[in-house]
Fold:
Amino acid sequence: MAEGQTSGVTYQKVGKEYFEQRQLQRHAGLFALWMMGVGAVVAGEYSGWNIGLAQGGFGGMLLATLIIGFMYICLCCSIGEMSAALPHTGGAYSFARTAMGPWGGFTTGLAENIEFVLAPAANMFFMSLYLAAIFGTPPSALPLWWIGGYAIMLLLSLRGLELSMRVVIYVTVAAIAVLLFFFVVAIPHVDFARYALNIGIDASGAAVKLEGGNGMWFPFGLTGVMLALPFGVYMFLAVEQLPLTAEESKNPTRDMPRALVLSILTLIALALGVLFFSASIPQGAHAMGSSGEPLLDGFRTIFGDSWAKLLASVAVLGLAASFFAGSFASGRNIYSLSRAGYLPTRLSVTAERTKTPNMALATGAAMALFMLLVVWYLGGSGNIAFMGGFLVSMIVFAGMVSYILQSIAFLRLRSRFAGITRPFVSPLGKVGAYATILICIVTLAYQFFDPLYRWAAIAAAAWYLIGLAYFAFYRRHRLVLSPEEQFAVEAR
Structure:
């Protein structure tokens, strides 16, 4: 097999049959992409975010959400510009590969891989808590819910990604409707000062419940705001997966930037609504800060336990939407890295009839299940809140690394490849990219200030280093000139 050497990597020459076995179908329009963007994230409004209330109180979590929401607007504008200019299914890896070479491409793609493998795993974990509460199954049975969920996802993928995407769209619309319904029925029960401000701090610095409420907005001060940042991230994390569907989009250069902006604006509105109404009804911020299923607890407060279970069965749709959308994103990420040779190439082979990357999807599912079981048996089985926070912290670490590298790629593309056609230009420009990098660095730093979740960031970093070593000593000599690689080589 003939090979070519460039930039410290080796490219294998492959025949046309290689890419014929790795084709995708175009079928997604603007509305589908918009709902896919929201669907990938909407589970973050259902569970996981609320741990930030215990870290920073209501005011701390609110400010953290606003800071992170601004960061995601900046990020989505930058990604929107790059995705329109480089409409390949590689997404973040594709942008960084063009701007920073093979090493930059893989380091970015690997960070996104960790994020997209773990994000649906966390969604599956939170969904299993809702399902266990609805059906009364014991905590020891949660792993069975995980296995069942991933089995359903893989069976759905066998029918083709077009059908899978349609299911995600329907489920996402229903998930948004459930949140809006919650906002409306919560209005008569709102007592902001009494419930949202019911977190205080004792002499030892620990959080305590203030029975009458009317506490401080920022009981933990600026430190609380910073510690809440990772949980603010979880309310928006994974919206950046949209460019991975570029080769399935009918008109990616036009629709991808629009869908990204629409998605993040929709998510900011939902995030602020769920934060305000969840904290401002009876039980309040203190109880929500340790809840495994905050939306279900909110429905319990309003309707009682029996009706809440019925409503929660509908609320599971939100978690299911993000689980399916995230799992498919994980598969696309593995598919694009595999097609280019950064991962074993057999993982990118698509089904002959449906053109679905089933091997990539199955690999992502296996990795996610493995990590869920590892965290479960290392301590999650005895502390549900800890397991949820641990998973969120690992995801946030990988996400922040990915965002920093994508922002650097944006800056380098602006300066070194000014001649590339840009159908969409970020209105925030370089300032937005620098703002993203700054906020990401602060969020990363404060992950290591929290002794409870510090080890989660270290675990994600270890995974990252193992992946980099795999590329350095083995895969960099087995790359393939996929569309992303070909474009990057020609651009240089």
